[in-house]
Amino acid sequence: MDEKAALRGAWRRLEADYLAFHTLAVNRRLHRVGVPTIALSVLVALSSARYHVLGLELDLALPILVALCVFYLALELRAAVLADLILVALYALARLLIEWLGDGAWLVAGGAFISGWIAQLAGHALEGNRPAFLQNAQHLWVAPLALAGEALRNTVSGTNPPPAQ
After folding, report:
1. What is the pLDDT of residues 113-129, one digit of tens each?
2. How far is Cα 43 from Cα 98, in angstroms, rounded to an integer?
3. 65 close to 141: Cβ distance less than 8 angstroms
4. Side-chain-facing half-sphere of 59: CA atoms under 13 Å
5. In b/e form, how buried is each residue of 98-123, taking b as 16+ CB within 10 angstroms?
6. DSSP structural state of residue 57
7. What angle in degrees, to the nearest 10, is found between the helix axes of 139-157 and 3-20?
8. Based on C-alpha coordinates, what's the Rg of the chain?
9. DSSP 8-state symbol, 54
10. Do residues 44 and 97 lie in contact, with contact meaning Cβ atoms separated by under 8 Å?
11. Residue 35: Cβ-neighbour burial (10 angstroms; 0-12, 13-18, 19+)
């Protein structure tokens, strides 16, 4: 088995494990709101940490975002395109919030972080289980790509079959 096939197989197992914690439609819907909301809050925090390289002002979010987007592309191309577009849009929104609100962006980020987690925890309470990342911390980065894959499967088939393992 080559490296790409091994990586893809590992991704399929992680995605299936993540989705197994999110079987109720209401939980999945709450995560579709909660995950991007939390991502926005993290991007605001990381975008606030700025530094200069070769005369360019950069922030801590940019290299992390680029690495995550490239990693997603290596795992699952179609879902990665959607997940990456959403993450880049959230990054742009984070930068705008910082520009428009200055330190007030931290209040927005704090509210987004708390409300995003409330939405997700409510979903898990309704489902009667604990968040997947408590069992496997990798689920923190799995969620955006898994949700993008699920959205694409819903759009194409009109249903939401579980991913093949």
Report:
1. 999 999 999 999 999 99
2. 10
3. no
4. 16
5. beeeeeebbebbeebbeebeebbeeb
6. E
7. 90
8. 17
9. T
10. yes
11. buried
pLDDT band (50, 70, 90) for residue 87:
very high
Assigned token pair, 44: 């605001």
**25-80 pLDDT, tens digit each:** 999 999 999 999 999 999 999 999 999 989 988 999 999 999 999 999 999 999 99
- Of 47, 53, 31, the C-alpha closest to 139 is 31
Other CB atoms within 10 Å distance of the CB of residue 40:
22
The stretches of 2-138 forming alpha helices (DSSP H) are 3-20, 25-48, 61-75, 77-101, 104-127
What's the confidence (pLDDT) of residue 160?
Answer: 54
Look up residue 103 and give its amino acid.
D
C-alpha 141/C-alpha 116 separation (Å) is: 15
- Give 12's Cβ-side CA count (13 Å radius): 10
pTM: 0.89
